[in-house]
Amino acid sequence: MKKSVFLGALTVAGMVAGSAAAATLDDVKARGTLNCGVSTGLPGFSSADESGHWEGFDVAVCRAVAAAVLGDPEAVEFVPTTGKTRFTALASGEIDLLARNTTWTLSRDVDLKFEFVGVNYYDGQGFLVPKELGVTSAKELDGATVCIQTGTTTELNLADFFRANNISYEPVPIETNTEARQQYIAGACDAYTTDASGLAASRATFEDPTAHVILPEIISKEPLGPLVRHGDNAWGDIARWTLNALIAAEEYGITSTNIDEMLAGTDNPEINRILGTEGNLGEMLGLDADWAVRAIKAGGNYGEIFAKNIGEDTTIGLARGLNAQWKDGGILYSMPFR
Amino acid sequence: MTTMTDPHRESFRLSMLLYDSRYRSMTIQIVALIGFLTLIGWLFNNTAQNLADLGKEPSFRFLGEAAGYDINQMLVEYNNQDTHLRAAFVGVLNTLLVAVLGCLAATIVGVLIGVLRLSNNWIVSRLMTIYVEMFRNVPVLLWIVFTMAVLIETLPAPRDFRGDDPSATMYLWDTVAFTNRGFYIPEPLFTRSLGDIHLFGDAMLRFNLSLDLIAIASTLLAGILISGLFKKRADRVQEATGLRPKTWYWRLGVVFLPTIAVLMILGLNWGHPELKGFNFQGGTYMRNSLIALWLALSLYTAAFIAEIVRGGILAISKGQTEAAAALGLRNRRIMSLVILPQALRVIIPPLISQYLNLTKNSSLAIAVGYMDLTGTLMGITANQTGRELETVLIGMLIYLTISLAISAVMNAYNNRVKLRER
Question: Could you say which residues form the signal peptide (chain A) (predicted)?
Answer without folding.
Answer: 1-22
